[in-house]
Amino acid sequence: MTEFDIVDAAAIRGGRATDAYFERTETALEHAGRNPRVVAEVTADQFPDGDFELFAGLKDAIALLEGREIDVDAVPEGRLFDGGPVMRIEGPYLAFARLETSLLGFLSHASGMATAALDCRVAAPDSQVLSFGARHVHPSMTAAVERSALAGGFDGFSHVAAGDLLGREASGTMPHALSICFGRGEQEAAWRAFDEAVDEAVPRIALCDTYSDEVDEVLRAVEALGDRLDGVRLDTTGSRRGDFRHIVREVQWELDARGHDEVDVYVSGGLGPADLRELRDAVDGFGVGGYVSNADPVDFALDIVEVDGEPAAKRGKLSGAKDVYRTADGAHAVGLADRAGPDGAESLMEPAIRGGEVVDDDAFDLDAAAERALADAEAVGYGAE
User: Fold this and answer.
1) pLDDT tens figures, 163-196
2) CA nearest neighbour of 11 among 140, 190, 203
3) Cβ within 8 Å of residue 177, ≥6 positions away
């Protein structure tokens, strides 16, 4: 028994993190002396339907498939899709059969979270947006949450260990617990302790809604920290919030009236795209949690579409190797891979692995993925109001 309920990397890489029927499929095929060369595709929807989602999780998927006797083509991470395959695998079926469970998990969960992040990004394109959702998931998932948020265009995240893995610095200042530890009426002591103790590189953002009215605490924070105060954060629980937009505007008004319009205002607490649209002209930044970390996974499936060079598929799935395209008008198109694509269309599928060797690191580069996401969002009108 392990200390925590975590399936480790060795089990994932070795194929033990699989559904039992894949092990039994291997046993049956080996007994029969069969190991056909197949083409398999990862697909959510067979035909484009206009409901775009953001592709993510490719980095982990490639790490899983690397070193096998297979070729892999994939849509680069950070591209929008709404039908047809996002990945194509060609090789002996037994070279990757037992990896299907982990492969789909990597792609499904990350794509769902990245899509939710992009929902928020396009809702407030000029605001700072940070991921605060790590607390809603199993600790072993936190790096995937934060990476997906960045792929969807977020500016940063809160989880320290995820930052260690991703090579990024975690963001964040103080929780309500800090003020509560000093006691009611002693908020100033909490803010000053933070200012005196925490590294100078960390912005002085005071949390201003622990015990009293937001305006009251904001003005007290300004008085306590003076010019050292960079901003304030309002995290008022929904049950006490009332008209949050009105509260924020009142805070901004009172700051401006006292000559403190340089103090930034950030908000957090159960926010989603609709909230960001409503508040984006009144605040400087947002912390978004559960909307991203609790997003539904994309319902990907892996299906064999060709066996020993011949089209093959189960009922309800399209046979034959396929390609996917971004058309000149920003739409998505699917066609057979051995046919010409639509006139003026861009093929989205690119080589990722050849003979087990990774051939395109840029396909899952995180910064490049975020750039692709924003460019695709504009091209297809994603989230247009």
Assistant:
1) 999 999 999 999 999 999 999 999 999 999 999 9
2) 140
3) none
**Among all chains, which residue has been given the structure tokens 């975690």?**
170
pLDDT of 1: 60
Which pLDDT does position 360 carry in this prediction?
A: 85
Instruction: Report the distance separating Cα 28 and Cα 94, nearest Å.
Output: 11
Distance in angstroms (rounded) separating the CA atoms of residues 55 and 326? 14
Cα angle value 225/226/231 (rounded, 5°): 75
> Residue 66 class from Cβ within 10 Å (0-12 exposed, 13-18 middle, 19+ buried)?
middle
Is residue 239's pLDDT more than 90?
A: no
Domains of the chain plus CATH, in order, are: 9-113+298-380 (3.20.140.10), 126-293 (3.20.20.70)
Q: What is the mean pLDDT of the chain?
A: 95
- From CA 84, how far away is CA 49, in angstroms rounded? 10
**Cα 148–Cα 7–Cα 19 angle in degrees, nearest 5:** 95
- Which residues lie closer than 8 Å to 93 by C-beta, 6 or more apart? 29, 35, 36, 37, 38, 40, 304
Whole-Å CA distances, 325 to 328, 331, 346: 9, 8, 5
- pLDDT of 237 over the 80 cut: no
Q: CA Rg, the chain, in Å? A: 24
Pairing of strands 37-43, 85-92: antiparallel
Residues 356 and 65: their CA atoms lie apart, in Å, by 7
Of 25 and 50, more confident = 25
